[in-house]
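lol ok so funny story. i was supposed to be doing the assay writeup but got distracted and ended up predicting the structure for this chain instead. priorities right. anyway since i did it might as well share w the group, maybe its usefull for someone
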Amino acid sequence: MNAPRLAAQYLESRPRGAGPAQARARLRQAFDRLPLEAILLGWDLPPALEEAVAAETRRAGARLFRWQPLLTGARRLDLPPEWAVLGPGGAPVPGHGGLAEFTFVCPNRPAVAEFVAERIETLAARGLFDGVFLDRIRFPSPAPDPTTRLGCFCRACARLAADSGLDLEAARRALDADPLDLVRGLLGAPGDPRLAAFLDFRQRSITRLVQTAARQAAQAGLEVGLDCFSPALTRMVGQDLSALDAVCDWIKVMTYPRVFGPAGLPFELLGLLDWLSGRGANPAEAHAALTAASGLPLPTESDSLRQAGLGSEALRIEIARGRQMGVRRLLAGAALVHLPGVHSITPAQAQADLEACRAADGLVISWDLWLTPLEYLDTIRAVWH
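and the output, tada:
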């Protein structure tokens, strides 16, 4: 199928105090303003709410996708702790905020592969969806501390690594490198071959699992979209955009210039900067190294990055980079919500971001449509049509 020109992620969780009628009414408001071609519906919802959204989506002639995490739990689903991604010291890598939906499991564990297959089989059997939008298809971000959070070093990974000729112990020793060199390597700059080999191994691990899940979904007649990190950061979470593009119908990139939460550019970059600072790196050298390795226009002062994030130019850069990395059908994610402490955006910034996103093949209203002010839907209509 063709990648949707306009799509929206909807209802990451059940809206407090709202039921099927309210969810359907809110969706109709969006369809009245925009020719949305696909709704990417959250995974942690009661069936009655799912069915109401499906009915409204079909009334509008749009396609319905299940927005489905693969390698994390959910609010109502804790995965077995023995499946956890293990850091270099053998300890489980903690999830952001201790939340199950951000606590990752290892893609190389056979039990995890079986669990993923069951997830795809269950949602395909519902007969409610036209496609799947696969999220959390990565390793946890090592940005807060690469020496403890870069995984995985479990027994399953050790076996697979040995079979492929990779020495995991050598990879572990590579983490003792100069912190600036380690960060450069995580962001894709040439460097220690031991680290590069380990990062390649992680990318193959994610690609293999996603390929299997995507093939299973396609065999069930489902279109497959992927939710991926911003291209500058994909190397450090195990995503190979070129390889992933080959196994799906389209990819959305999470280039969020002002999101101070997982996957947001300032959140991840500040994690690396703060870690470098804690390791005694000269602030100017750390800033210069991160700017050069990421290829992003970081503010001169880290306080500015901490307070305001990046500008819209980051979107243009990352869309172009995604194409260079081999993504043929690239959709840009647009964060347009107001979440205290996590994200805010002015009308002028929204306008600039949406203009920048026009370089992509399509736009995904991200996280999510339920919380997006209607005025920004009108801005999308003005900019994109």
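Residues 203 and 238 are 4 Å apart (CA to CA). The longest helix spans residues 193-219.
back to the writeup now i swear
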